[in-house]
Amino acid sequence: MTFRFIHSSDWHLAKPFRRFEPALAGELAAARLGIIGRLAKIARERGARHILVAGDVFDSELIATVEIRRALAQLAEESDLSWLLLPGNHDPLRLSGVWDQVSRIGVPANVTVLSRAAPQAFGNDAMLLPAPVTSKDPGRDITEWMDAAATPAGAARIGLAHGSVRGFGSDDDAALRMAPDRAKRAGLAYLALGDWHGAARISADTWYSGTPEPDQFPDNEPGFALAVTVEGSQLVSVEKVPTAEFTWLRLERAVHSLAELGVIERDVRTAAGTLAKTLVRLSLGGHLSLADRAALDVWREDWTARLRRLEIDDKRLTVTSGSLDFESLGLAGPLLEAAKHLAAMSSDPANAESDAAATALLRLAGFAAEGRREAP
């Protein structure tokens, strides 16, 4: 019999996003809560009735009651689907933790908190083997019990765990280590993992789903859920399905002319779903003329308005200046003389005021570039 389910993890609900301004932090937190509805839609489209969440449902053990109630209410709204939630290292299953609050509030009928390391019936002819996290440093492989776990003959054995397989990186606590061949040892059709925030294939039958909604500028592949199909006791397929509302891009570029900013614009447009839902961290190296460096500031303002957030690190970007730069900016008279003086100061490494002069020169050039842009 064909059995389909959705594998997700690392929702980190109620993450505060303190480094951002309140408006953006609120939007990002709302996008994380919206994960529930997006996963429900994916499940229905693929004929899946169960969503497995491999740990870190909540961002921490100390979550405001209203945030927990919001999450439970959203899950209850998707009443035709079964949600199986595994405690992770951010929200471990221990006394007075977030799962105690969940229990006191009341778990919806379509939600199961996986609080025991014991086989559990799961769909038709499938058994779920969960490994809930009860400590940030258990001092053992919490999936080891799966090897000897008894399940009915012919049933598909599905493992669910949170942590880092040996030899593979972890976003959080490296103390949660698991054998990379646990699926083979335990006869699992599939091992659903959480903790690593990017979708990743460890082996044909062992996958990290990654977080469905990115929360930082990544170097992995966040923003997916995995649609898994099992036939009998054998894995058939694993499909990566996009889930993210926001796009986070980290770009590193060397530029030597203003025209090369067009290439950056093209790359952003290609990667972004919607510019207004895209956050970009851009690291710039290379060198620009004074005129182009001034124009870069104008470009920055323009694209800050287009994107939801733009961060530019230009510490490695050097600036050259000369008479042609001054002329192209339309500087004349006292302003031209001031620019020449600042250029001389900024290019003299022995001058203690060289950095301040460089900053002043760029501001002067920026004012001139903006003035020329706004001129009729």
What does this structure look like?
The chain is of the alpha/beta class. The chain has two domains: about 1-240, Metallo-dependent phosphatases (Purple Acid Phosphatase, chain A, domain 2); about 245-375, no CATH class. The protein contains ten helices and 17 strands. It has helices at about 20-35, 35-45, 65-75, 100-105, 180-185, 260-270, 290-305, 325-330, 335-345, 355-375, and strands at about 1-10, 50-55, 80-85, 110-115, 120, 125-130, 155-160, 165, 175-180, 190-195, 200-205, 205-210, 225-230, 235-240, 245-255, 280-290, 310-320. The strands form four sheets. Strands 4-3-2-1-13-14 form a six-stranded mixed sheet, covered by helices on one side. A six-stranded mixed sheet has the order 5-6-7-10-12-11. Strand 3 (about 80-85), helix 4 (about 100-105) and strand 4 form a beta-alpha-beta unit. Helix 3 (about 65-75) packs across helix 4 (about 100-105). The longest helix is centred in the C-terminal third of the chain and has 21 residues, at about 355-375. The N and C termini lie far apart (about 70 Å). The model has no long low-confidence stretch (mean pLDDT about 85).
